[in-house]
Each structure stands twice: as C-alpha cells, then as structure tokens.
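Hi all, posting the design record for the shared folder.

TITLE: backbone redesign
STEP: 1 of 1
STRUCTURE INPUT:
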C-alpha cells in the first residue's frame, strides 16, 4: 500500500510541472488510468489502445462499463 501512496505523491508533483491547468488535468487522468490498470494486473498500454480502438469503431457508450480495467477478463502483466 505504501508504494501506491508514493506513486500518487510523485504523480501529483509531476502534474504541477504540466505547464497548464488543462495539461495537469490530462496528466492526472492518464496517471489514474495507468494506476488502476496496474492495480488490476492489466497492461496499461494495451488497455488504452484497445479502449481507444473500440471507441473509434463505434462501441456503444451505454456499454462502456465493460471496458473498465476491473472488468477486463484477460489480465496481463504490466511488463508485457
């Protein structure tokens, strides 16, 4: 648990250097997605790529809950 807290503190400090409020918000969003993926043993890069591809392919917004990291059935190592 202590490692997770340290990562949040580091991310918060890095977001301060984003240069703009919108940039900091985007940084925070991306860092949150990556952290949630790691907690659920999901490869963050693959998760983001698959989710964006599904959105581009017209995946219905009403079923977006299926793409939450904790609903991904095939867990993969973040190092993959």
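Okay, here is what came back for every position:
SEQUENCE:
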């Amino acid at each position: 648990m202590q490692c997770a807290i340290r990562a949040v503190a580091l991310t918060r400090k890095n977001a301060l250097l984003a240069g703009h409020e919108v940039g900091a918000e985007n940084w925070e969003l991306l860092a949150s997605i990556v952290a949630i993926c790691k907690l659920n043993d999901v490869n963050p890069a693959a998760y983001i790529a698959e989710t964006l591809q599904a959105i581009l392919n017209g995946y219905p917004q009403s079923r977006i809950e299926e793409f939450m990291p904790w609903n991904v059935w095939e867990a993969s190592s973040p190092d993959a």
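COMMENT: Residues 75-80 have pLDDT under 50 and may be disordered.
Let me know if anyone wants the other runs.
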